[in-house]
Amino acid sequence: MMRGLVAVLLAAACSLAAAADKQPHKPPQKKLAAADESTEGFLNLYVEICVRHFGDLEDFRARLLREKVPKLAPEHAKLFLSGMAGDAWPVPYKGKMGNFVLALPAGKNLCLLHAHRANTVAVEKGFLDIVADAPKPMVAKRGPVREELSLDKLKMRTVSSTWAPPGARRKMEFMLTTSASPKAELQALGSVAIVADDGPPKAPARPAPKRTP
Question: What start and end residues bound the annotated signal peptide (predicted)?
């Protein structure tokens, strides 16, 4: 039963990734502002990395380590792993480094994509468009919007959606937390995880946005 459910979840993930290939989330064809490129980059990387590789995250992480893809030093990776064991990699987009970071906690069905800077309104809209419709027999269920303050008193907003066959307890959960404050060190965090409860979705372990110097 569990194996069958996982197969359905992974098929859904592949369908989502394939849809993103056919209809990439790009702004209208005009001169891109930095905010537009950050939105495009975040949404495309979220699908291409976290969703596409969700079924083999441990193998994917092992391959990155085996191929010695440059990763963050442990003391810097802590910010993105929030206390969990694992690794973090800076991710280029269109040849540029510095804005996106991938974190893969060891031994967990959890993928985290961070953005230092993002157009949070556009990212949230694009994210909700991506996860709005689940392939059959999956059913998409939108979670409640959660707004809270970080330890630094910065506003954070979390939206989420789960995909699962009717009646299933184990679900594929997509979650996005953003902070529009220019003082936030991290303005967007997207995650994909398997959750096993029917209660309100819990935000993934994440660093509270920090004030920049």
Answer: 1-19
Full-model pTM: 0.79
CA 110-189-28 angle, 5° bins: 120
Q: Helix-strand-coil percent breakdown of the chain, rounded to 5? A: 35, 25, 40
Helices and strands: H and E segment counts in the chain: 5, 8
Count of other CB atoms within 10 angstroms of residue 90: 17
Could you tell me if 165 and 11 are in contact, meaning their C-beta atoms sit under 8 angstroms apart?
A: no
* Beta strand segments in the chain, E: 86-93, 96-105, 110-115, 139-142, 146-149, 155-164, 171-178, 188-195
pLDDT, tens digit, 9 for 90 and up, residues 59-74: 999 999 999 999 999 9
Residues 100, 90 contacting (CB under 8 angstroms): yes
**Phi, psi for 150 (deg, rounded to 5):** -75, 175
pLDDT in tens, 101-117: 999 999 888 999 999 99
Any idea which residue has 């989502």 for tokens? 16
Alpha helices, DSSP H, located in 31-117: 34-45, 57-66, 74-81
